[in-house]
Amino acid sequence: MDNSRKEFAEKTLKFLCVGSQIEGIKFYGTQILISESETNRSRIDGQIYLNIESRFKIFESYPEHIPNHEDELPYMDWIDGYKTLCELRLKRITDVKLGESIPHLFVYFHTGEVLFVFGHHNKYECWQLGVWNNSIKDEDWEVIAVPGNNIAIFTPLS
User: Fold this and answer.
1) Pairing with 15, which of 8, 59, 98, 144 sits 20 to 30 Å away (CA)?
2) pLDDT in tens, 54-65
3) What does each C-alpha distance from 18 to 15, 87, 92 come to in angstroms?
């Protein structure tokens, strides 16, 4: 993952998420719904979402050991996964970061907890964070962990 792309992706993720809170879950795939915040409200009026397509875990704080392989994270069927994600209900996001060389997603909450989403797969996207139904139709907002430890970024600024 190119360092300048990583920095731009993190800047976009922070704009979309910091100050927001988890406001719901969509039951088609594993998708978290995120509220707008004071900093993005004037530009975003669609739904901010996080699609999770790989294993994830909520840590009590930043983990001492970052998993190198997806099988180091617990396997959860969709019911257990949703129950786990429901624990994040109405928690405020304070920061968002990516892994150093792999686009693992780290979402930090005011409680100190960290949602970790595994970011490596050889064939598939691991996660997507973006906006749908924004009123400014020609503006796309999306950051995607793509195969090959890379990141795709779609913003009006790119």
Assistant:
1) 59
2) 999 999 999 999
3) 6, 18, 8
All structural domains of the chain with their residue ranges = 3-154
Q: 106 in helix, strand or coil?
A: strand
**pTM, to two decimals:** 0.94
Helix and strand totals (H; E) in the chain: 2, 10
Q: How far is CA 87 from the centre of its chain?
A: 16
115 is written with which tokens? 């949602």
Contacts of residue 84, defined as CB under 8 A and 6 or more positions apart, other chains included, come to 56, 58, 76
Output the furthest CA–CA distance in the chain (Å, rounded): 42
Q: What tokens does 35 get?
A: 């509220």
